[in-house]
Amino acid sequence: MTRVVAVPAHFDDRSFDQFAQAFTQGEGALPEARVLVDARGAQWASPYGLLGILTAGQALVEARRERPLLVVPDHEDVKSYWARAGFFKYAAEYFEIHGKVPRIRPSDGSDVLLGVTPIRAADDVHDAVGRIQEGSIRILHGELGLEKGATMRFGMALSEACQNIVEHAGTGGWVAVQAYTWRRRLGRRVVTIAVSDAGVGFRQTLESAQAKRFGERWGDGAALEAALIQGVSRFRDPGRGQGLAFIKRFLGQWQGKIAIRSGTARLAIVPAWDDDPPLAEGLPQFPGSQVQIIIPAQGAAD
Amino acid sequence: MVATIRIDQLLQEAVTSPYRMLVTRPTGAAVRGRIQAALDGSECETALLDFSAIELIDLSCADEVVVKLLATDTMARRYVVLRGLCDNQREAIDHVLAQQRLAVAALLPETDRPALLGWATDDLRRAFDAVCATAGPVVVSALAAMLEWPVARAADALATLARHRVVRAAADGYRPLSLPLL
User: Rounded to an integer, what distance in angstroms lies between the CA atom of residue B102 and that of residue B118?
Assistant: First the structure.
């Protein structure tokens, strides 16, 4: 038996819960069914959306479920972008792919600052940060108006976000960075970092050290609050837990946004230009953790 | 005696990446281990850590390389000075040191004198600058007169700087760290 999980036509952080709902809902009703991720109707996907699909596939394969199926988008330009972003290269590791995939080599550059990149160990973080530093100055400085020093902070933020996978997820994950124009939401260029893993999530990572302190409030939302707002870590080392604090401070300087989704909750540091709720709980369960960082072009982000 | 340690060379030994990026805790721990190994075989009193060929350092790596190095037995009887830090590197190191109420001296590109990075009160910074600006040793009474402070306040500041190993306490007073560039 096959269970269909449809990819939203416009797949980004706002439609992610729709995908998560479809992914999770059937797990209860048809727990042994083979999953088919249907992307035929996809018209656009952000890096966050692309990593969400990979994470779903990764979670199924690591749970030793039957290898899921992926039907590629109908639109040629959508397929081309997904291929250029490196999505299909890694999707083939987890999905049985149906449909014609363009023969385009994944490439950074242009608006894809960093194509889909696996993060499994510290060396992968080195590689991702190095590639970003090499290629991002034109977009971050030239197009987004960030001062040149900010590209270093951008690399630092990317590094800290990726290290959460290596240090806490218990499995591998993914990162992708892209610049594009947010016509509907902001009316200007943004650069977005998406990081996702299929690991244990923030609640399980912090449970032994933090659950007692939160008491009945303990859950996915409280775990995100502990990590992002209070800067706690599962390690006793007092030098730990500073990475997310740094990202918050960096984003504050640039009217940026960070949102972390883990399990059934999402916590965001919301700038003035966005109307996301700071905390959303009771969301559809989704494996691991997903981080999205957005930095808008400077000058009119209000 | 001063041992100059080029961090970029240790980084190249520690990782296979072609980039000169000090990122991730494992990398920081590997670089710290190499610094310790270099110093353990040396009689030097001061380690001058040269970051000038490093492009980027993240907080995790700054914590592993600098903060944890200061806590090692290797450094218990030695002084550390940092050199070649750009603004972002200085910011990262300053932040991780301040989090743990630690301080270190650094030679910054835009000045010809050492500066304090990390946790330091205004009193400590003023006392540190005074010691570094003085040709000879600085005694408590001289600092008190120089800054128009009570003697106890000057004594406390100098003792704290010496405890953080950012000035040297000698028999004839407090001196800046010995460095070729000072």
Answer: 6
CB A73 within 8 A of CB A82: yes
Residue in A296, A85, A18 with CA at minimum distance from that of residue A181 = A296
Question: Which is higher by pLDDT, A9 or A111?
Answer: A9
Q: Choose among B15, B25, B55: nearest Cβ to A133.
A: B55
More reliable by pLDDT, B81 or A31? B81
Residue range B143-165: mean pLDDT, rounded:
97
Instruction: Identify how many contiguous H helices and E strands chain B contains and give both numbers.
Output: 8, 9
pTM over 0.95: no
The CA R_g of chain B, rounded to the nearest whole Å, is: 16
Q: Are B132 and B150 in contact (CB under 8 A)?
A: no
Q: Which residue of B has its CA nearest to A231?
A: B99
Q: What is the pLDDT of residues A129-184, one digit of tens each?
A: 988 887 777 788 888 888 877 888 889 999 999 998 888 878 889 999 998 888 77
Contact B137, B130 (CB under 8 A): no
Q: Look at B25 and A122 and tell me if their CB atoms are within 8 Å.
A: yes
Which of B21, B88, B99 has its CB closest to that of A149? B88
End-to-end Cα spacing for chain A: 50
State whether A129 and B21 contact (CB < 8 Å): yes
> Using CB atoms, which residue from A133, A153, A242 is nearest to B21?
A133
Q: What is the largest CA-CA distance in chain B?
A: 55
Chain B: residue whose CA lies nearest to A245: B59
Tens of pLDDT along A70-97? 999 999 999 999 999 999 999 999 999 9
